[in-house]
Amino acid sequence: KRQAISLLASQTSSAPETVVTPSQPEDDFQEELVIRPLHSGDIYASFQFRTVWDTDFMGGKKVSHYRLFPKSLGQVISKFSVRELHISFTQGYWRTMQWGQPFLPSPPGAELWVWFQDTVTDVDGTWKELTNVLSGIFCASLNFIDSTNTVQPSASFKPLGIGNVTDHRFLRYATLPREIVCTENLTPWKKLLPCGSKAGLAVLMKSEKLFHSSFHSQAVHIRPVCQDWQCKSTSWELRQTLNVVFDLHSSGQGKREWSLFKMFSRTLTEACPLASSSKIYIDVTDNPQQFELSPATPLLSQAVVLGDRRTYSVYDLTQQATFGSMRSLNMLLRWKSSDGDMMRPLLHGERYVAGYGLQTGEIHTLMYNHHPYRAFPVLLLDTVPWYLRLYIHTLTVTSKGKDNKPSYIHYQPSKDRVRPHLLEMLVQLPPNSVTEVTVQFERALLKWTEYTPDPNHGFYVGSSVVSALVPSVVAMDTNSTQERPLFSSFFPSKEESSYFVRIYTEPLLVNLPTPDFSMPYNVICLTCTVVAVGYGSLYNLLTRTFQVEEPSPGLAKRLANIIRKMRGVPPL
Amino acid sequence: MKVQGLTIQENNMGLLSDPNRRRALISMLTRLNAPICVVCYMAGVAWFMGLAFEPFTLRTYMSENAMGSTMVEERFPAGERALATGREFAAHKKKVGGMPVDWLVKTMQSQGLEVFTQRFSRTLPFPDENKERYVVEGTNVYGILRAPRAPRTEALVLSAPCSPGNNNNQAVGLLLGLSQYFRNQIYWAKDIIFLVNEHDLIGMQAWLEGYHHTNTTGMDWSPLQGRGGSIQAALSLELSSDVITSLDLVLEGLNGQLPNLDLANLFYAFCQKIGVLCTIQGKLQRDDWDTASGYSHAVQTMMLMVLKQASGRPWGDHGLFLRYHIEAASIKGINSFRQYKTDATTIGRLLEGMFRKLNNLLERLHQSYFFYLMPSLSRFVSIGYYMPAFGLLAVILLLRALDLWVQLSALPSRTEDGIADIEQSGPGVLSVLTPLVISHLTGVALYTLPIRSQEMAVEHFPVFETEAVVLTAIAIYTAGLALPHNTHRLVSGEGTEQGWRVLKLVAVLYLAVLLGCTALINFSLGFILALTLVPLAAFITPHVPKLLSALFMVLLSPGCTLFFSIFFFQELQETPVNLQEGWVLFLSVISQGILDHSLYGSLVYPLVALLVYPCWLLFWNILFWK
């Protein structure tokens, strides 16, 4: 198999480069779709749209003329002095063991992390305002981000753009694991594109198909990047990504055959006219053993992505020839056989709650290193809401039955109703092993107004984040960095023999002790009765003076007393 | 206003503040103590029997809005194919001679499920003769249907046991048929776990412990590789024939725990909708509640539930889920001689409907009752209705305690001064403490010795291990009758009038607390124990005729209660047994009880051995007070 790849590589390197990038002085827009057939028969489609603008939002002068870059986001950047902004909305959980690594990982629900400029003085206030503004832009419940779910990770989220500020005082990270993503979030996201959904690849984004899938994730990443290789001036990069996995059984009707039309119920007729490049990549690394592709394309491209050298068939939409005589592109992928093994992802994580009962529990986080002989360190970030009171003394890290001492631990305890627990650890994962991190917790009893409207559903604990430099399967080819496709050039990778991977574990749903909310009525009745009967009689007993009753006075004495009373004299 | 309030309070509580009236009340309670107790007992029993009378019960209704109002359409088409899969499974099972793990894994994988296996092993404390097993090793196979666009936080479970012989093949077939059908649907919001468990409850216990990473019973299992988040509900399917006449719903779980009533309602609603005959305790419901036979039918159904619940054992594979706060029930297909048959497609559609409704749940099932009795599938008795029956029995104990208290405070007043009183109370404490300690030690022996001494017993007597355990238990139980009484004489010399009263006061209050707590957790067990223990607690004194009372006490002891309950249960199930068979059943029930405790953590055996039996011994002690 390795031979086949190298053969292909030699073929493509000799092929002439036909991509022509029109030079744009100010701003530039590129669009791209990667389709990766998965071993399970499912299919993974990943859209990336990149707008680069050579401007400076921070330079003091007000930027008012927008062309390709969306104005709403530009204003946000300048108003809140944002240096880097990453936001993702995901519906579903990325199944690493079935699907391999995604190009851009994201946790279920909404995730937002922002680096602010070091000129910002009140970071928390700016963060609060920013979340509210973004909530409006993306029609999402980002306004639920407050101090109880915001953390400042010390090591896990480094800036991805240029700049050397790494003081994590300017970083804010928050997830909303319960956020539901739907068409109402897709529409504002599509509106940020220069062509909207009128032309180009965005035509394929029909929501009834995108949400008829196993996984749906959309994201916006803004960061400053170098303008050229000399890196004398910066430009702003906006990447919009959308990842979707279509299910073989429910949307493919069980047939191992996919086409653009079957996936998106649309075909392509043109590129976005504003785009400098518009391409479709199809991962054909396993071709022709596994599946066939039609119409065939002469363009092949090599890329090392996620530590693996992959070969892609490229369709350039800016070329009229791509669309053929039908004037529409609807390529078809047909599997020939369903056998063949998937390369096991080297890193994979899992998490669950152990124990039963509503008092205590234990969070288990499992990290698998599937590399046969190399150990590598990972950074684990755990954010746990305050209502699960972590017993940090019970924290254990074990691999292969032995205690595995983390080389770095950053723990910030929670404050009730103010901030969550933050636990960051640098753990060395031995080769071919499972590392288990366990910590016990106690479930807090909330105040009755703090329960959500559906308290018996449970409370969410966001995904833990595992970031790692995973040893690469193939040594990375350093020559081709300039011409690399977009999906492979996001995370900067310093060491050539390893690549950066971030994985998210599943979020947890934890039941807290929940009162019966019809109870207040019963309690009121009960307390009233107890107070009336119990307190009344006790008070009566305590305050009454007891004396032996005298035998009743005679008639004469009583009469005399009545008369004395009328006279106002004390009775006899 | 003030004046009025005062008078009301005086009327209310004047009873206690006014010494004269207090005296009058107390003297009335002591004078009429026996008649009041008798009336309470009768009323308690009558109340309980009245619970099954239809006009006194409530009709079941769906409380959970997420399941009640939503529409579901059942479309499962592939019953015949499911049965064919079941036959294939049976063939593979026969070939392998156990769980066909590889075949199951391959089948589930081909359907697009994530498949995992779990190995487990367990050595029983002594051989289980009912199921003929001692060292149990097995594998559970489960496949997870991942819900599209769901973050793996919630799951539902459908399980079918892989039983020895020809049982439950159809259940596994239907499970696989459903998994195939469910996999192609887009509407799932929760992961669905299809579990085929080997060695019925032991496998289920291993799987649940693995899933929740707990180990309460010392079982060996391999950790699970795949999970689906917190399990919201589970159904266990038992089906041994291609067509059935009715479906039986089993609710009673470990320690008498019951699933939320909405789960039973859901089953009933779908049976009504699809037109399948449904039963509970194997009894159909009848419309003629106003006739004697109709009423007795309801009583029988309810009594069966009470007896099953009191036994504290799981009556189906679902029973172990309840510990983890997962609502679960077993559905058993019954094929009798009735004319009208239901095919597998219909059962599949019923299960599909139930799962789709459970899938719609936004919260865990919590709206309806957790404590109830069911005289029929469409009628229930809630905790508020059945608790007074127990309360009427329990109040007898309190009345007797009050009576004793009054007698105790009246006794010293007959002596000349307070000094004698204090002198008497000194040995009084010791004379109470000694029987308490000794009877509890007997209880501890009853709890620990049977399993520990089995090897010794097997060496010295010609019995098997199981028999050894049971017979040791019975021997210790019987020996306890001879052992502890009159021990107080060792420490305090001659037993005094006051001595036994103090002991009885303690014993009566002890029993009241014990029964009260038991009834809160497991009403049926508490009620049955109260039914037998309360009368003897009420009347036992050293002055009643010894021989007759001793016989009476033995007959009402917890062991004999169990013995009678077995006959009663068999009678209710319409499989009456004679004395010989009853005895054999009795022995096996004891061994099952001990096994349930060590395998699944059932609490009935330790409760009886460590608390109820010692408490009964205290009364035995009082009877032989000298």
From TrEMBL, chain A:
Gene Ontology CC terms: GPI-anchor transamidase complex
GO biological process entries: attachment of GPI anchor to protein
One Pfam entry name: Gpi16
InterPro entries in the cross-refs: PIG-T
Name of the protein in its database record: Phosphatidylinositol glycan anchor biosynthesis class T
Organism: Myripristis murdjan
